[in-house]
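Long-time lurker. I teach an intro course on protein structure, and each term I like to show students one example going from raw sequence to a predicted 3D structure in token notation. This year I'd like something fresh instead of my usual example. Would anyone be willing to generate the tokens for the chain below so I can use it in lecture? Attribution to the forum is fine with me.
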Amino acid sequence: MSSASTALIPLAPLHRFSAVNGARRSFLCHRNPWRTRVFMSVSVGSRATVGNDALFQDYKPSCAFLFPGQGAQTVGMGVEAQNVNAAAELFKKANDILGYDLLDVCANGPKEKLDSTVISQPAIYVTSLAAVEVLRARDGGQDIINSVDVTCGLSLGEYTALAFAGAFSFEDGLKLVKLRGEAMQDAADAAKSAMVSVIGLDSEKVQLLCDAANEEVDDQNKVQIANFLCPGNYAVSGGVKGVEAVEAKAKSFKARMTVRLAVAGAFHTNFMEPAVSRLEAALATTEIRTPRIPVISNVDAQPHSDPDTIKKILAQQVTTPVQWELTLKTLLNKGLKKSYELGPGKVIAGILKRMDKSADLENIGA
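-- Reply from a regular --
Happy to contribute to a lecture. Here you go:
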């Protein structure tokens, strides 16, 4: 998938999760992010009620780690990581969990295989976390990692961010990502659906375009904005006939262009509903802890600290629009000073620069 495609991974209705003040907090953090645990006085895994999901509600970001989503993959990624033992070790661990040689696919392709949903999602997750180890091995790298006080990722990248923040182990995160890719592929195979990027319109005009397209198709082919990426770049997802109607009408709405995305189907819409129950079952048996730093959710552009709430959000994420534009806008408005994009590609850098040309961002590849 091209960088344009990554620019569009759908979004859905915003959901709020209640929180209350006064939760007593005590932290015990270890330096290794894959082993990090955070201990709080609130019960781990308890319901998202008024106090235990409010830990990060007043966060003030200064340095962020940003992780890419599906579409950032490229043949040759992961090769640089082999020069750093800790990074290379992640690929070896991945082979045992995935049952195939991930590095071989990343390094040599073929592109069609790497681009598949079931391969690209684990590949990006592992390569992005390997990039953290590449940075750690650099002079001053550990100091940079220690300075990070917020993290987030685009769609799939939210899992990478949660792993970096210690919400679950590298291994557990990879198992979830593997299942997520498989479940999303199966859901896509079950119905004819697609995604298209609409370039050059604001979100209100894109919504009007979707409304016009929906007037011409049946319920099985309805479309919606699935990814609010950045101003002038939104992904629309839905039935194939609905997507074709969007493409046909885009010029009349003064869109600059449309780009059909090379994805398996209508991600971040109800077309992915069959994947939810499988994710819920896997998440129910996965140990998720309170992250050591805020991790911004794709669903509502808010950080969450309650493990049960995080589980619900991750299951919900595949059927709801990605609020990436709102996420970055919020970080910038809250005073974010420095960002790092870790993993393959430079999609997020392009988005951030489009929103703020003066944004200070560095890419760390692997």
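Some talking points for your students: The radius of gyration is 19 Å. Residues 1-50 have pLDDT under 50 and may be disordered.
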